[in-house]
Known about the structure:
Layout: H1 10-64, E1 77-80, E2 83-87, E3 106-112, E4 115-120, E5 131-132, E6 139-149, E7 152-161, E8 168-176
Antiparallel strand pairs: 1-2, 2-3, 3-4, 4-5, 6-7, 7-8
Amino acid sequence: MPLKNAGFSLAETLVALALSGVVMLGALRLLPQLQRQNLQLQSQLRLQEELQQMLNVLEKAVRRAGYCHGVCAGPSLIVGQRCLLVRWDENSNGRWEGPEKEESEWYGYRLRSQRLEMQRGVASCEGGGWESLSDPTMLSVHTFTITRRASQVALSLGGASLAFPHASVTLHSLVSARNQR
């Protein structure tokens, strides 16, 4: 009995190699696009997280605004053009410690040079010494609006990723400010 040859012929092997080469070439062309989309999605999520953290800080400040364990004088929440000033009795001593005090209970938030900035102990949104709440190497903040509606404050915060400038996010929040004066 003759032995039967097992395996592929040379022609079958060459066809298989050619087909697998075409498939690999297609996959190699698709891989950079998938990597770029993945990086863009990660950048978008990071941007949204950063903006959400900053919005949480603003919401907390608005909720605290006006708290006083006694008799505090003056407005507790001042809304300006791309600026928010708030006051609350952080140490519950019955008064708002003014901007001249080391432990001042006056806080400011402003948009300047595409950065959201914050400073303790301010009576206006002018001047220096403000610290950035956003990383200027990662994102640019393009929207910071505050609208007061009776006992509610509408906040909008928007920014764009510097790595992917077309990746832009704007977040909105409506905060109840019960302590406002």
